[in-house]
Amino acid sequence: MTPVLHNLTNITASEGENVIITINASDSDSDALNYSVNDSRFQQSSSPQQNNTFTWQTGYDDAGSYVVNATASDGEFSASGIINLTVENTNRAPQFSFFDAFVEANESKAAAIRLNFTDPDNENSAANDDNVLTVSINDTRFVQKQNSSNSSRFEWQTTFEDSGAVVVSLA
User: Fold this and answer.
1) What is the per-residue burial (b if ≥16 Cβ within 10 Å, else e) of 123-156?
2) Tens of pLDDT, residues 94-122
């Protein structure tokens, strides 16, 4: 007799998550069942007791919709069903690639902090860009002078009364 699939459900996951498909099926003849999916990104469990389980560790470039065909076979007959899988984009934090960790300026001269950063999600097309980068500094004496797609410059025009050390945080 043909195996019968039970409870195939659609799946939604986020980039970076592990997607698990478990195929539940029965066979009225009690024949042993073999399981498969038509997507090579999924790895079948090596455990004989869980050979109906398939996993895929998604990456940060895997956002999209996928149609997975799940099959149970007794060697003679098989049953297949569709699982619609949606992997949603994950917004990752930007990374500072370089900045001046120590800035020294004479009184009445401009003190400048230059920041370079990358945002791995901005490698996507503009239609898929899910964020706008904002760079800030916690000292209002610094004014943002320049901002390009991957760098910022903050300046503070010091006076003769501004001698000493200043600690700032970047965000």
Assistant:
1) eeeeeeeeeeeebebeeeebeeeeeeeeebbbbb
2) 777 666 666 778 888 888 887 777 777 76
